[in-house]
Amino acid sequence: MSSALPTRHLLLALAVVSVWGTNFVVIKVALGHLPPLLFAALRFTFALFPAMVLLPRPSVRWQNLALYGTLIGVGQFGLLYIAMNGHISPGIASLVIQVQVFFTIGLSIWLGGERVRTFQWLALLLATSGIALIAWNTDGTTTVLGLLLVLVAALSWAGGNIAAMQGKPANMLAYVVWSSAFAIPPLFALSLLLEGWDAAWTGLHQSDLATWAAVAWQGWGNTLFGYAAWGWLLARHPAATIMPLALLIPIFGMGASALWLAEALPAWKLGAAALVMAGLAVNLLWPRLRAAFA
């Protein structure tokens, strides 16, 4: 694998992180008509079909696929969509969800006995300070409930990461697609139970072309293109070259929310973003910098 990143590969990586970042604005579009749990169920339906026909089932245990699908489908996206349905702004959601990095580290330590290194404590302190600043400044666009829901969604994402590590799928795209089959039934069931048939029917009846485009973008653009392209890049370049670009996701998320949804970016919000991003950067880049100057 090469450590140098050709221009075409860099542009592809930027396309992926821009899709993942601006995706939070796309979520807001679909939530204008669809109840959040129904929206999540439709998202994973689009991710499953027709890709399931084209991709062979990954050679992992069904229990592992079910665990990953439930954690990512119901835990991550189900709760994220509920939070974004009036409880948290897209820009802040795109930032807070990234603390899944630290939850993943914490779960790895708890389950695998890994040791926390000094730079990771510093990274966690910076990110936690940013989250605390957001909690201190909750307003009409971001509530304590919304913040808590996104934090639990981030924890579910981290659990999904651990499940994927244990499953060791050879093809991550096929793994994501086939695991979607286990996200769909509970999401539809919870939608009918908690949101009701009337809300589901009204949402489907009122959905316009933009709504269905947002759903398709979630299933096909965000999932299929994103995972396929990111996996392709990781297969050709060291993770240390590709992964730092993921730091741009909240920047795209907050920028798109400010540009398209007129989300305000006061000083406290920019400060919170800087703290969380600094924590993510320290966790991701410190080992590489230390090795370079050793």
Give a verbal description of the structure.
The chain has 14 helices and no strands. The chain is mainly α and 294 residues long. The protein is globular. The two termini are 23 Å apart.
Alpha carbon gap, first and last residue: 23 Å
What form results from the Cα inertia axes? Answer: globular
Mean pLDDT: 88
What is Rg? 19 Å
**What is the SS-derived class?**
mainly alpha
Give the H and E element order.
Answer: HHHHHHHHHHHHHH
The biggest beta sheet reads:
none
Please report which band the strand proportion falls in: under 5%, 5-15%, 15-25%, 25-35%, 35-45% or over 45%. Answer: under 5%
Helix content: over 70%
Poorly predicted residue ranges: none
Number of helices: 14
Number of strands: 0
Secondary-structure blueprint of this entry?
Layout: H1 7-30, H2 36-48, H3 51-54, H4 62-84, H5 90-96, H6 100-112, H7 118-136, H8 144-167, H9 172-195, H10 197-206, H11 209-234, H12 239-242, H13 249-261, H14 267-293
